[in-house]
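Appendix B. Chain record.
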Amino acid sequence: MQAVEKASSSEELVKAVWALSRSQSEAAIPMLIKVLGFNNPGAAIAAVEGLVQLGDVAVPTLIRDLDGYDYGARAWAIRALSRIANPEALEILLDAATSDFSLSVRRGAAKGLGELRWDVLPSDARETAQRKVLETLKTVATDEEWIVRYAAIVGLESLAKQVFTAEIQDYLKQRQEAELDLTARSRTELALQKLK
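Structure tokens predicted for this chain:
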């Protein structure tokens, strides 16, 4: 952690963060989260990788320390939460996908919602949570930004591999007809092909 604090160049910082990430130490979690706000993409990528490798143990601190002001740091944190895929982050991801002003945050949350590990949730809470995710992704699939809609389609495809397959296929067919952006429409077609 001292190497991160003492880094005198961008390159040194990236190397120090990669070393910290490789340590897989729970004590590194706060520093890895702090790095997400350094405005250094290379260091942020290394920090996200470290947090993802630490997995579920990093989730409570990521949620607690989510930066409400720095949307760049928030986007990186949402990416980490999405890749860890622990449903403990469900409410954060739902809120980020629908109401964050930053399209990179909305995009990351939408993709992550479809990849949550439902087996971690108690079975009695699972279906309600999955239904919330489905309805949220349907809403996000109509976002004004094509890249966010694209991410919602990716999220829906991932969710359909676990639950609500027929319902999601029907919805994707509707979105395919309504989607005006060629890239998002093509991604919808691909999702439908993968779900056959």
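Further analysis of this model is presented in Appendix C.
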